[in-house]
Amino acid sequence: MKKWLLFLFITLTTMLLVTACGTNEEAGNGTSGEENTANGTEGEEEEASEESETYTIGATQIVEHPSLDAAYAGFQEALSDAGLDVEYDFQNAQNDQNNTSTIANNFVADDVDLIFANSTPSALGALQATSDIPILFTSVTDAVEAGLVEDMEQPGENITGVLDLHPDSIKQTIDFIDQYFEGSTVGLIYSAGEANSVTQIEAVNEAVEGTSLSTAERTVASSAEVQQAASTLVGEADVFYIITDNTVVSALETVIDVAEEQSIPLVVGEPDSVKRGGFATYGIDYHTIGYRTGEMAVEVLTGEKTPADISVEVPPSMQLFINKEAAEAQGIEWNDAWDEEAEFLETEEAEE
């Protein structure tokens, strides 16, 4: 009997020990699993954080008009196509160059990840405000002459972008006027305060040399002065040529009114002005240059490149654009050669 009780005691003790060991192993395995789960969750959170990183871009624009707006839209589209999560702080300087500095300084204070500068004054304001934050510009005519970069191939530590003037644009425009409006005086209206405009006017006068043309100039300080400047050219100018001057382009409709009332052909600097009622341009697509600038911004934001690694680029191509309705309104005799040479645009009112 005692032997049987001893045997039973040993058996029960052994079972209890085995059960305890099993429980401890399960508990140990459970802890290890929780740790693995925690580590996995942490890794997933880090990966998700990297994938959903949000960038802040300060967008500075000298004034709102269709060409600059198209460049900004193209810039945004490029970053969206790249899948980047971006918050934009868009600031319009209201065509006041003093405002460009204030806007840029605010961007620096907010520590934005990148500045998109849409126009020469906007880019200059940004560059004066920071040498650290990357600056991507477009709608700039001559970055070297404006003092934005020292060299197109080696732009600088924190700035690069895409120009809005094809190297042959002004010469081809002058050749077009010389061919079809021979002997004309070309009326030029521009803001002497815009460095890009001064560069273009110099290029126009250089291109006129050796042709049958001459030029007559008027300068303005604000968009409110544009109509008066156009009116003073009546009787002196046979053709108007409005370059990509932000001040004048923002008030282009006042020049169109004079051109139509006085039957003066209005040649312009870009296709959006043709759509607004200009007669013709050898122009570029501003949406395209904005998009290319956006592609550069993607490379910079993702760390693939720095602005110093990216050369300043010129527009890839240009095209003769003509508005037939504007030609009729400005009393222009149609030339059949234009049917083969030009791409035709309608005025904005006609498209709506």
Automatic annotation (TrEMBL):
Keywords in alphabetical order: Signal
Signal peptide: 1-20
Spans annotated as Disordered: 24-52
Pfam families attached to this UniProt entry: ABC_sub_bind (PF04392)
CDD domains hit by this protein: PBP1_ABC_unchar_transporter
Segments of skewed composition (Low complexity): 28-41
UniProt cross-references to InterPro entries, sorted A to Z: ABC_transpt-TYRBP-like (IPR007487), Peripla_BP_I (IPR028082)
Source taxon at top rank: Bacteria
Key word RNA-binding present: no
Compositionally biased intervals (Acidic residues): 42-52
PROSITE patterns the UniProt entry points to: PROKAR_LIPOPROTEIN
PANTHER family for the chain: ABC TRANSPORTER, SUBSTRATE-BINDING LIPOPROTEIN, ABC TRANSPORTER, SUBSTRATE-BINDING LIPOPROTEIN-RELATED
Name by which UniProt lists this protein: Putative ABC transport system substrate-binding protein
Organism of provenance: Saliterribacillus persicus
